[in-house]
Design goal:
The chain is mainly beta. It has a single domain, classed as Protein Yojf, Chain: A (Distorted Sandwich). Helices cover 10% and strands 52% of the residues. Strands 4-3-2-1-7-6-5 form a seven-stranded antiparallel sheet. A hairpin with a 7-residue loop joins β3 and β4. The protein is globular and about 50 Å long. It starts with 5 loop residues before the first helix and ends in a 7-residue tail after the last strand.
């Protein structure tokens, strides 16, 4: 969990976004008013950034190719948990906003292409 404030979060996510390459992501949202829902599944994670001016965590997703991308916004993030993995990219990031709604971003490397 981050406890160092916005600067620590912003720096971490900027560094992480540089290492994503072909990481796939599933975004799940859980809140008292909407229950648990999957917002996106198996999309390429194009970046995660923290905007300290607007107090927003932005999760960028893309289906790949020239199609439009999707952004998931977490307003006023209060707590961020990062589940480490064996590689550089974590296996999951969970964010709780000021209203108690949680966003879970599950990460995994894209499958390798078959050998020719």
């Amino acid at each position: 969990m981050f406890s160092g404030g916005a600067l620590t979060s912003a720096t971490y996510f900027d560094d992480l976004s540089r290492t994503l390459a072909t990481t796939q992501a599933t975004v799940e949202i859980e809140g008292a008013d909407l229950g648990a829902q999957v917002q996106a599944e198996g999309l390429v994670l194009s970046g995660i950034t923290y905007d300290d001016r607007d107090d927003l965590l932005v999760v960028g997703l893309s289906p790949g190719g020239p199609t439009e991308s999707l952004e998931h916004l977490v307003s006023a993030p209060q707590r961020i948990w990062v589940e480490s993995s064996d590689g550089i990219v974590p296996s999951a990031i969970e964010v709780e906003d000021a209203e108690g709604q949680r966003t879970l971003v599950r990460l995994q490397s894209a499958p390798a292409l078959p050998a020719e």
